[in-house]
């Protein structure tokens, strides 16, 4: 049985299901195996040992020569059903064992039929894919932010944040801290519900894991982005419930609405607005969620005042975010609005 690092594909999964999973991760590895080939068991055991290497930052290929993020690893046991064998073949994996490395859903390396598939070969392919996913600008990978002081007023900061996330959703630039959502506490089932287009990897946790949403509730997501948390929440509150995403970036709201239309989701809506002044009536919400957004606000006290305003009596909040620790010193270059805008 595969461990937590390895996800076995169910025999009722289609190739479209697998491609959706692959699209939701920056780097993915798919391995085709079968019980009749003895070397497969040792191969999987070896691949599973890579988890500790990633955890200990021993595998390179990351931006600026740093460590790589842990990939999603999918295992297809081709001898368990004809359907799984067909999935493997459609992904270009006809030999046993064989593997393919994907970057944002696109195959970048597939083992050859006569290739000796080893853990070292797999590791090298993963490192190469991670290295290729780092695209430095002319100023270098994740360049230092502009000099502090360029953004002084609250409006300047909000404009800077909005422009940064508009560039991210339009793929004209990418946040250096974009991460694989499966590492943030989301299950593969969650990511399938949300859809690949809603998952931009911009969170820093999973607020839904402790929100305890119930059917029929009204939920508001502060800084909803392309909609990942909203679509997952919509499943939890059901047809009698409602989910409202609020985001100040028009391009994000447009993307989220487009995703909702494609998915045919009826109990989700997305509104353009600032989280400091929510476009919602008083006492109208059962739960407020937010994922790595409140830290971007120049007036966090106002954010919480407005959360209190829209919550019904007995309402609750579920927030995943970054915080500072009093004993920790933040470098000056990370204190600028530009550095924190992404």
UniProtKB/TrEMBL annotation:
<keyword id="KW-0808">Transferase</keyword>
<feature type="domain" description="Methyltransferase">
    <location>
        <begin position="215"/>
        <end position="325"/>
    </location>
</feature>
<dbReference type="Pfam" id="PF13847">
    <property type="entry name" value="Methyltransf_31"/>
</dbReference>
<keyword id="KW-0949">S-adenosyl-L-methionine</keyword>
<dbReference type="InterPro" id="IPR029063">
    <property type="entry name" value="SAM-dependent_MTases_sf"/>
</dbReference>
<protein>
    <recommendedName>
        <fullName>Arsenite methyltransferase</fullName>
        <ecNumber>2.1.1.137</ecNumber>
    </recommendedName>
</protein>
<comment type="similarity">
    <text>Belongs to the methyltransferase superfamily. Arsenite methyltransferase family.</text>
</comment>
<dbReference type="GO" id="GO:0030791">
    <property type="term" value="F:arsenite methyltransferase activity"/>
</dbReference>
<dbReference type="InterPro" id="IPR026669">
    <property type="entry name" value="Arsenite_MeTrfase-like"/>
</dbReference>
<dbReference type="InterPro" id="IPR025714">
    <property type="entry name" value="Methyltranfer_dom"/>
</dbReference>
């Amino acid at each position: 049985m595969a461990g937590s690092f390895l996800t076995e594909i169910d025999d009722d999964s289609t190739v479209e299901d697998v491609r959706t999973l692959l699209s939701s991760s920056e780097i993915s590895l798919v391995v085709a195996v079968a019980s009749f080939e003895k070397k497969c068991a040792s191969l999987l055991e070896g691949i599973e040992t890579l988890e500790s290497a990633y955890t200990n930052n021993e595998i390179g290929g990351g931006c600026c020569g740093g460590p790589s993020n842990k990939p999603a690893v999918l295992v297809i046991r081709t001898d368990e059903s004809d359907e799984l064998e067909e999935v493997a073949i459609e992904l270009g994996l006809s030999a046993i064992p064989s593997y393919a490395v994907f970057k944002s859903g696109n195959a970048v390396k597939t083992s050859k039929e006569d290739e000796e598939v080893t853990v070292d070969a797999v590791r090298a392919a993963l490192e190469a894919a991670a290295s290729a996913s780092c695209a430095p600008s002319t100023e270098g990978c994740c360049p230092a932010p502009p000099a502090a002081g360029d953004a002084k007023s609250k409006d300047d900061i909000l404009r800077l944040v909005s422009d940064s996330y508009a560039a991210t959703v339009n793929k004209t630039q990418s946040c250096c801290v974009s991460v694989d959502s499966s590492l943030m506490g989301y299950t593969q089932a969650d990511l399938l519900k949300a859809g690949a287009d809603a998952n931009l990897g911009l969170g820093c946790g999973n607020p839904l894991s402790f929100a305890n949403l119930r059917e029929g509730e009204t939920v508001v997501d502060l800084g909803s982005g392309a909609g990942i948390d909203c679509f997952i929440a919509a499943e939890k509150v059901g047809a009698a419930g409602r989910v409202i995403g609020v985001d100040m970036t028009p391009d994000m709201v447009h993307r989220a609405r487009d995703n909702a239309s494609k998915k045919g989701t009826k109990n989700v809506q997305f509104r353009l607005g600032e989280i400091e002044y929510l476009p919602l009536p008083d006492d109208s919400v059962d739960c407020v969620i937010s994922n790595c957004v409140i830290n971007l606000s120049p007036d966090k006290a106002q954010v919480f005042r407005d959360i209190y305003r829209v919550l019904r009596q007995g309402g609750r909040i579920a927030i995943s975010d970054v915080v500072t620790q009093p004993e920790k010193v933040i470098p000056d270059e990370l204190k600028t609005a530009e550095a924190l805008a992404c």
